[in-house]
Specification:
Layout lengths: L2 H60 L18 H24 L5 H34 L1
């Protein structure tokens, strides 16, 4: 083998080595980009899951998803009867709206709708009376 032939084979070998290196580098870059995107998506999903779990735990600890978070003062008592009555009225109103929607959608009959509304009205009146009696009892206890 002469020197010229060896030199040409060497040049071909170097060119093939450089070509293979470029192809491997491009494939490696593409795979690392896909891995970065996938790990970012998984990280966001885990973060969203943690935030949701904390939200649900807070809702469970503080008594629901609505405005009940701040219904008590720093000593653990009720802020006022008007605030609790207003939130109870909102809650009962939403139950009434839900009953109306179920009736309109045909999920419950007219008789069942009337029975549930009557029960809701009785329960709402009893709750208001019980709250007022509790407020009176608390005032009497404070005076003693």
């Amino acid at each position: 083998m002469d020197g010229k032939k060896a030199l040409s084979y060497g040049a071909i070998a170097v060119a093939v080595f450089i070509g293979v290196s470029v192809v491997v580098s491009v494939v490696w870059w593409f795979l690392s980009l896909m891995w970065a995107i996938l790990s970012g998506i998984v990280s966001l999903a885990v973060f969203a899951g943690i935030v949701y779990a904390l939200y649900r735990a807070g809702a469970w600890l503080f008594g629901g998803d609505d405005a009940g978070y701040f219904a008590s003062d720093s000593l653990g008592g009720s802020r006022s009867s008007s605030t609790s009555t207003a939130s109870a009225a909102d809650a009962s109103e939403s139950r009434r709206d839900r009953l109306r929607r179920q009736y309109v959608e045909g999920q419950i009959s007219e008789a069942e709708f009337e029975r549930r509304i009557a029960s809701e009205l009785e329960t709402g009146e009893r709750d208001d009376i019980d709250r007022e009696l509790d407020d009176i009892n608390r005032e009497l206890e404070r005076e003693r």
